[in-house]
Amino acid sequence: MKWAEISILTTHEAAETVANIFHELGSSGVVIEDPELVNSYLASGVWDYSDIPQESNTEVVTVKAYLPVDHQLDDKLRNFEEEFQQISSRGMDKGKGEMQCREVQEEDWASSWKAFFHPIKVGQYIVIKPSWEEYIATVDDLVIELDPGMAFGTGTHQTTAMCCRALEETVKAGDLIFDVGTGSGILSIAAAKLGAASVQAVDLDHGAVRVAKENVVINQVEDIVQVGQGDLLTGVTGQADIVIANIIADVVIKLLVDIPKRLKDEGIFIASGIITERLSDVAAAMLEHNLIVEKVIEEGGWVAIIARKGGR
């Protein structure tokens, strides 16, 4: 399958707004290439980036999205350009605004980064192991075998790792979980391995749905995790003990309208994909929807929030 890789040069301030525009156009996964984040990875040694130098220009952020090459692509690109030009009217610096578009084959994109993806322990128990790598597990390890393909979510990004740790703290045996924007299925699989009785995973992107289903089978949790295509919570039924969404702040805020009626009393909402600067916005929106923030996890300029549904 052919994909269009759309990349735009922007600023830290506007990066999340640009990502949200891409999301609204149907790209459920967006890559934000933040040079400050790259430098932090190089310093930590988490990624095997031995041939990549420290970034000197940390002011320019590249936002990329992948859209299918089909009859709707031209209209989506025109809509993106119109929305991008509106960013300045919101009082934000949109930066250079240089945009590039190129076609990539799914197999080329999905394979090019494999040299940098190795087993990594992201929590007290959860270990993410690429399907092509060997790993000797300890007694307490919960190993998730993963092949992300074109989907998003390898466990190496801080937001995914923080969500895994939040699940370790909150999942109880027998829980019903909703995973919104499942990507590779990593968080659904983690919830299943932590003892959840049922997980409903949803993603808008059909490619992510396919990859998530494959990863569910690889990890032998298909009797627990059901993956479907849908927009946010439109693809799930019932009320959950835990809803988790690793998306971006604006989409999390949009999602909050439906969260209270989709959570059981005292249910937990875990939200990430949120840059530190947007924490107050998301926390305020949670309070408006009767969600009490119980814990904030912060790492590398990103946050994850654990909130509980209030009693009123």
UniProtKB/TrEMBL annotation:
One of its GO terms (molecular function) is protein-lysine N-methyltransferase activity. S-adenosyl-L-methionine binds at T160, G181, D203, N246. SUPFAM superfamilies: S-adenosyl-L-methionine-dependent methyltransferases. One of its GO terms (biological process) is methylation. Its EC number is 2.1.1.-. It is found in: Cytoplasm. Gene3D superfamilies: Vaccinia Virus protein VP39. GO terms for cellular component: cytoplasm; ribosome. Keywords: Cytoplasm, Methyltransferase, Ribonucleoprotein, Ribosomal protein, S-adenosyl-L-methionine, Transferase. It catalyses: L-lysyl-[protein] + 3 S-adenosyl-L-methionine = N(6),N(6),N(6)-trimethyl-L-lysyl-[protein] + 3 S-adenosyl-L-homocysteine + 3 H(+). It is an enzyme of class 2 (transferase). Its main location: cytoplasm. Methylates ribosomal protein L11. Belongs to the methyltransferase superfamily. PrmA family. This is Ribosomal protein L11 methyltransferase. It comes from Pelosinus fermentans B4.
